[in-house]
Amino acid sequence: MNKKTLFISASLIILLVFIGAATIFKASNSHQSTKVENLDIVERVGAPIKGPLEAKVTIVEFFDPACETCSAFYPLVNNLIKRYPGKVKVMMRYTPFHKGSDQVVKLLEAAHLQEQFWPAVEILFAKQQAWTRHHVAQPQSARALLKDLPLNSEQFMRDVSSENVSKVIMQDIADGKTLEVRATPQFFVNGKPLVNFGYEQLTQLVEQAIAEAY
After folding, report:
1. Among 118, 134, 139, 146, which has the minimal tally of Cβ within 10 Å of its Cβ?
2. Which domain holds residue 26?
């Protein structure tokens, strides 16, 4: 076999390897961005929702209240509800990755049972530095920040320790694992995951869902 033949053969092999790798990457990326068919895993009945219930586009956010990025994204996600009035709603699901957050999300769910989830989460995001230390949540400090909310304190304390609240948190954690949520915030729009993280990318995914739904 002469040098020219060797060169051509080697070039063909390299080209085939490149095409194969590109095909695998494209298939993998397509799989990652594919809509989750079982929406019962993505959405949970009774989870906190902001925006009109009849909105056809649902942003589901798996979040940790001690997550700085979740705090930074909170007003940005709210802007999407305002930007597309009547078309978009947001559902929040608990993913307590930070140490101590498993107790803090119980506070939020107990507040949710008294229709105070959104005021509670806004307080915790706004004053996140007051109840976290080196990315570790301090549940007692978080609880103290919620003392001025219009809550039935006795019922609130019972709910925080209740089995029902624990089951809700465990369900969200289990669904997050099934959906391979490894970091927060993780967004799904009408069941389709946000693969490339970023506000612009989230906006594009929302606009795509609006175009498909309306």
Report:
1. 134
2. 1-32
Same domain, 27 and 126: no
What is the Cα–Cα distance from 202 to 74, expressed in whole angstroms?
13
> How many angstroms separate the CA atoms of 39 and 27, rounded?
22
Backbone angles phi, psi at 192, to 5 degrees: -100, 125
Of the candidates 79, 20, 9, the one whose C-alpha atom is nearest the C-alpha of residue 50 is 79
In single-letter form, the type of residue at position 62 comes to F
Max CA pair span of the chain: 88
For the entire predicted model, the pTM comes to 0.84
Q: Per residue in 2-50, pLDDT tens?
A: 544 444 444 444 333 343 434 433 433 434 468 888 888 999 999 999 9
Are 21 and 71 members of one domain? no
Classify residue 37: in a domain, yes or no.
no
